[in-house]
Specification:
The chain has 439 residues and is of the alpha/beta class. It has helices at 11-23, 34-43, 60-70, 85-93, 106-125, 144-156, 173-182, 201-209, 226-229, 245-257, 283-288, 294-300, 316-332, 340-348, 354-368, 376-387, 396-410, 415-422, 426-436, and strands spanning 3-7, 27-31, 48-52, 75-80, 98-101, 163-166, 191-195, 210-211, 223-224, 234-238, 259-260, 269-270, 274-279, 303-306, 337-338, 373-374. It has 19 helices and 16 strands. The structure holds adenosine-5'-triphosphate (ATP) and magnesium ion.
């Protein structure tokens, strides 16, 4: 029979909870003051402690500290009717297992206790998943198909060849393009990605080729296009499968002649840029459907690199998980650990969002892991929360708000530190928080 310590100053709440838990088979030591609670904690180790927050001259946060001091593995569940950002924050930072807002259903409390017990058992039998040290690298992965890709990159990088990079969303197309650039003789020159899908078709031409003053309404001065300003460097035409047929012809001409003529300009000028292209669409199929010019496809397809989806990169999930674990632990100055069961759950998942998804998930898990432990339950919950309804992070504003919330959580609400991590002025952060309705 499990023993629990219950700290609650309200007599009727205390007896209701005690009766309920005793019927569930627990042996409950119920006390009403922080002094009694701390005495009990010093006398014997409790695996689980449930405490109200506002008690007497000391609070549930003092109970939390005493319980964790007496028994670092102790799971403390705090409850309060007056939860605030600050108390929840302090509870989390102090290593509380869970926080229940009063009033709650007794079954919810039971659920929290059971989860706490399960995590304690896991803690005993579970070792930390570990990995041999690998040399640091910007591209993580050692599976056979990825090593083939490293070989292709290393061969093609020093040349000026056009490379077509294909792969599902989040498989690392942009990172491959950057690797090609940084391992070429152009490394010291600009690398400029252009998201062809994000630029309105009418503007894509002036974006790439530039426009002379007066070429269209609003062109108040001469503007050089990306292909000219990236001269001697590399341009990545991202989402190339999304450009319109008419513009495809313009692009083909450029690839043949390597000359840019800004809109409204009389003559063109030679530029020396290396062109890389990326897409998550099947270009060959688009060609068959008549949506992509075959001649342009040939031009782009001099060398093709096809990135495998993460679910086919057997063995890379542990490498990536540990890579991002380390990255975010360092970034947020945390010490989250990945349990064997957590890693198993990561390995069993299918990763529709590929590497970007595992990266975001690991960031979230590092920040939110209860007591810094990432186990199976944490992973499954994280996957559920981030895959179905990515909480508004679909929009740019939503993603920014999410990021701000995460960093604030990690910095214990310290706005100066949060602003530094986010790379923005403190004033800017305040403004953004106001706009988000947080403060
Ligand atoms: N092999 C890898 N090792 C470490 N990080 C990676 C790797 N591949 C991708 N990433 C990271 O995953 C994220 C997504 O990668 P990237 O932007 O290159 O994907 P993408 O294929 O261009 O996606 P999309 O089609 O959505 O544009 C980036 O943060 C990138 O740094
Ligand atoms: Mg991309």
């Amino acid at each position: 029979m499990s023993r629990l310590l219950l700290v609650e100053d309200d007599h009727s709440v205390r007896s209701t909870i005690t009766t309920f838990l005793e019927l569930e088979g627990y042996s409950v030591d119920a006390v009403s003051s922080t002094r009694d609670a701390i005495n009990r904690l010093e006398a014997s180790a409790y695996p689980v402690v449930i405490s109200d927050i506002y008690l007497d001259d000391r609070t549930g946060l003092d109970i939390l500290a005493a319980a964790r001091r007496a028994n670092p593995g102790c799971a403390v569940i705090l409850m309060s009717a007056r939860g605030s950002m600050e108390t929840v924050m302090a509870a989390t930072q102090g290593g509380a297992f869970d926080y229940l807002a009063k009033p709650f259903e007794l079954d919810d409390m039971l659920g929290a206790i059971q989860r706490a017990e399960a995590s304690l058992n896991l803690e005993e039998e579970e070792e930390e998943a570990s990995i041999d040290d690998l040399p640091p690298s910007s591209m993580i992965g050692s599976s056979a198909c990825v090593v083939e890709i490293y070989k292709t990159i290393s061969r093609v990088a020093p040349t000026d060849a056009t490379v077509l990079i294909e792969g599902e969303t989040g498989t690392g197309k942009e990172i491959v393009a950057r690797m090609i650039h940084s391992n070429s003789a152009r490394a010291a020159q600009p690398f400029v990605p252009v998201d062809c899908a994000a630029i309105a078709p009418a503007l894509l031409e002036s974006e790439l080729f530039g426009a002379m003053r007066g070429a269209y309404t609003g062109a108040d001065r001469d503007r050089s296009g990306v292909l000219e300003s990236a001269n001697n460097g590399t341009v990545l035409l991202d989402e190339i499968g999304d450009i319109e047929l008419t513009f495809q012809l313009r692009l083909l001409r450029f690839l043949q002649e390597r000359e840019v003529r800004p809109l409204g300009a009389a003559r063109g000028k030679k530029v020396n840029v290396r062109v890389l292209a990326a897409t998550n669409k099947d270009l060959q199929k688009l060609v068959q459907e008549g949506k992509f010019r075959e001649d342009l496809w040939f031009r782009l397809n001099v060398v093709r690199i096809t990135l495998p989806p993460l679910r086919e990169r057997h063995g890379d999930v542990p490498l990536l998980a540990h890579h991002f674990l380390k990255l975010y632990n360092e970034r947020y100055q945390l010490d989250a650990r990945l349990a064997v069961s957590g890693l198993k759950a990561l390995e069993d998942y299918s990763w529709p969002g590929n590497i970007r998804q595992i990266q975001h998930l690991m960031e979230r898990l590092v920040l939110l892991a209860p007591q810094g432990k990432i186990d199976e339950a944490a992973v499954l919950e994280g996957i559920e929360r981030t895959s179905s309804k990515d909480s508004g992070a679909e929009t740019l504003a939503g993603a920014e708000a999410e990021q701000i919330k995460k960093v604030l959580l990690a910095t214990n609400g310290n706005k100066s530190r949060a602003a530094r991590i986010l790379g923005i002025e403190r004033k800017t952060l305040y403004r953004k928080l106001e706009r988000m309705g947080l403060d």
